[in-house]
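An instance as discussed:

___
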Amino acid sequence: MYEYKGVKISWLGHDGFRIKGEKTIYVDPFKITATNLEPADYLLISHEHMDHCSPEDAKKVCGPGTVILTIKSCEEKLKGQVNAKEIRIVSPGQSLKLNGVELTMVPAYNTNKFREPGIPFHPKADGKVGFIVKMGGVSIYHTGDSDFTEEMGAVKNIDVALIPVSGTYVMTAEEAAQATDRLAPKLAIPMHYGTIVGSDEDARKFKNLVKACPVEVLSKE
């Protein structure tokens, strides 16, 4: 866990995080092993791939008061599977003011990672997202599964950036470091390694390459 200006950020493995301030927020929980997790006020799910939209893991963090915010393609996977107050559909470019939280959805997609020629793993047309969470005066950008994009480059005034580093489906450590230097957050935390693709070495490489800000490599909770 890392505390930044009163907001506690815990890495739950892969792209999964708990962000705790005035509200408790989870993002993309997958194969989480932490126990006695307090219920989410908000659960954010970036897209429908099984390592992000996992009903089994959503159940572990949801309660009857939880609001799930996700894109349309996740709705059917979650509906009837998870005990939550509401599933609210969001889309790229949208901003919301919630109770105690501001949320902006940033497009998340590949520019140079392809499953076959001309077909990216994460096409822009699919409407997958990353999330900018503003809570307690702190802005945290979870990029989702993305390469560096025009929309990412337009993001300003981020305190903490949560950045994928594994390559294959997302940015490599080198690309992630370049993206971080462009974003110029106050702090960066690597993600998307250690479960499906990527290793601790990718996280360490990323830390060594970033010039714009400190990097914290978190231990999994």
Observations:
- The chain has a mean pLDDT of 96.
- The helical segments are 55-61, 72-78, 150-153, 173-183, 200-209.
- The radius of gyration is 16 Å.
